Automatic annotation (TrEMBL):
Protein name: Bifunctional protein PyrR
GO molecular function: RNA binding; uracil phosphoribosyltransferase activity
SUPFAM superfamilies given in the database record: PRTase-like
EC number: 2.4.2.9
Gene this protein is translated from: pyrR
Annotated source species: Lactobacillus intestinalis
Protein function: Also displays a weak uracil phosphoribosyltransferase activity which is not physiologically significant.
Length: 180
């Protein structure tokens, strides 16, 4: 049984707040690049990008990142496969830029670590910040989000599910128990 934590309006408010915080921390939009982590992070990044465009009348570079092969908890070393990210996937120059990595949920920190590794293979940003819709705690790595929509304390036998209209036909954040 899933418990809805946030509905569409609450998500919209959180993304608007995160957008303002990104602009304030960056002191505007100069040298700013948004990079969404596939899959849901890409859609959240697009929404933040659209809000910045409306607020600042600026088209901030927007890229997307697939970090699958950079995951240390999903990569099979026996495959002898080097992690590869297609440079076309990011689609923007990140050298000497202030990059904001955007994802739906931060949990152990492994996705963000993998994303930072993937970014470093593409260039050298001036800074990397992290924006997430939900921080559920339980970090295994010393990584934190700079911009957080909501902190949701969870147990390890729970899951936070972020749904976005673009692929789930609705916007919501739900907390559910993992099957035993």
């Amino acid at each position: 049984m899933a418990k809805e934590i946030w509905d569409e309006l609450a998500i919209k408010r959180a993304l608007t707040r995160i957008t303002y915080e990104i602009i304030e921390k960056n002191k505007g939009t100069d040298n700013l690049v948004l990079v969404g982590i596939k899959t849901r992070g890409v859609y959240l990044a697009q929404r933040i990008h659209n809000r910045i465009q409306k607020l600042e009348n600026v088209n901030v570079p927007l890229g997307e990142l697939d970090i699958t092969l950079y995951r240390d908890d999903r990569h099979d070393a026996s495959l002898k496969q080097d992690p590869v990210v297609n440079s076309e996937e990011i689609g923007v120059d990140i050298n000497d830029k202030n990059v904001v990595l955007i994802d739906d949920v931060i949990y152990t920190g492994r996705t963000i670590r993998a994303a930072m590794d993937a970014l470093m293979d593409q260039g050298r940003p001036s800074s990397i910040a992290v924006a997430v819709l939900v921080d559920r705690g339980h970090r295994e790595l010393p990584i934190r989000a700079d911009f957080v929509g909501k902190n949701i304390p969870t147990s390890n036998d729970e899951q936070v599910a972020v749904k976005v209209k673009e692929i789930d036909d609705q916007d919501s954040v739900e907390l559910m128990a993992l099957p035993k």
